[in-house]
Amino acid sequence: MKIVKHSGSIVDFNRDKLKSSLLKSGASVKVVEDVLQVIEKQIYEGISTNKIYKLAFGLLKKSSSSHAARYNLRTAIQQLGPAGFFFEKYIARLFISEGYLAQTNLFLSGKCVGHEVDVAIMKNKYIEMIECKFHARSESNSDVKVPMYILSRFNDLKDRSHRIFTKNDTISGCWIVTNNRFTSDAMAFAKCSGLQLLSWDYPENNSLRKRIDKDHLYPVTCLTTLTLAEKDKLMVSDIILAQEIINNSELLEKIGLSPNRVKNVLKEVSELCNYL
Fold it and tell me: 89-123: per-residue pLDDT in tens?
C-alpha cells in the first residue's frame, strides 16, 4: 500500500511505525490494535499521511482525550506559531523546569551590532543564549546555514558585558532549538563549533520529544477539549503549559467556558500530566 507524505513523496504504509507512534500516546496495546484494525480497513492506495493522522487522532479521542492529546504533540508544537513567539516562551518554560532561570525576547549589543536573542538561560551562574528556529511545516528542516549564522551572532555577543539576569552578565554558551529536525551537516557543524542542538528527535536520548514526555511539559495546544481560539486566549494570558491551567483554572471561565467544559478541560489536563 502506497501513501503520500506531506512533502509529496510516495512511500509504503508502515504499520509498525504507526503502531509505535500510537503507543507513545499512552494508549494500551489493545486500544492501539483496535485503532490499527479500523485504519487498515479504511486506508486506500494514495491516501495522505495527513488523512491517516486525522483518522488515528479521532479514534484515539474516542478512547481518551489525553491519549489523543499526546498523539497530537508534534502538531500542537506547530500550533505555537505562526511567528514562533509562543514557541520561544515554551522553550523557556522547558529549561525553567530543569532548574534554569530564563529571560525571553532580549535585545543585546554585540561587539559589532545589536542582536535580538530569543531566550537567555542561567544555571550555576553559567549563562547561555538560545536561538529558536520555528517551522510551521513538518517537512522543513534546519540546514547547515542555520548554525553557521547563529555562531557568528554568538561570537559577536560572547565575552561582552550584558544586562540580563544581573548588571554584568557574560554569555558563555549557545543553543539552537527547533521543533523539527537538523540536517546531518547542521549537526556536524554544530558539534565541531561547540554549539548545543535540540530538535524533535535530537539528541537521541534527550530530544525535545523525550524531554516533554519525561516532565509532562505539554503545551496547551495539545488539549482536545479547547478550540484554537481558546488556546490562543490562554497563551496571550501567559498560560503556555497545559499543567499551568491547574492553578489558573479561573481563566477558563474568563475566556467563556461553561462549568461543564471547565470540568472536562481540567480532567484532560490531569490525565495528560499524570495528576490523577
Answer: 999 999 999 999 999 999 999 999 999 999 999 99
Closest CA to 44 of 13, 5, 11, 22: 13
User: Which residue type does 105 have?
Assistant: N
Q: Record the pTM.
A: 0.89
**Which residues are within 8 A (CB) of 185 and not within 5 positions of it... i.e. 6 or more apart?**
143, 144
Q: How far is residue 36's CA from residue 43's CA, in Å, rounded to a whole number?
A: 10
Cα(154)–Cα(172) distance, rounded to whole angstroms?
9
Three-class secondary structure assignment of the chain? CEEECCCCCEEECCHHHHHHHHHCCCCCHHHHHHHHHHHHHHCCCCEEHHHHHHHHHHHHHHHCHHHHHHHCHHHHHHCCCCCCHHHHHHHHHHHHHCCCEEEEEEEEECCCCEEEEEEEEEECCEEEEEEEECCCCCCCEECCHHHHHHHHHHHHHCCCCECCCCCCECEEEEEEEECCEECHHHHHHHHHHCCEEEECCECCCCCHHHHHHHHCCCEHHHCCCCCHHHHHHHHHCCCCEHHHHHHHCHHHHHCCCCHHHHHHHHHHHHHHCCCC
| pLDDT tens per residue, range 32-80 | 999 999 999 999 999 998 899 999 999 999 888 889 999 989 999 999 9
Which residues lie below 8 Å from residue 152, measured CB to CB, with a gap of 6+?
none
* Spatial distance between the Cα atoms of 96 and 198, rounded to a whole number of angstroms: 15
**Of 199, 205, 80, whose CA–CA distance to 143 is shortest?**
199
Reply yes or no: is the peptide bond before residue 82 cis, omega within 30 of 0: yes
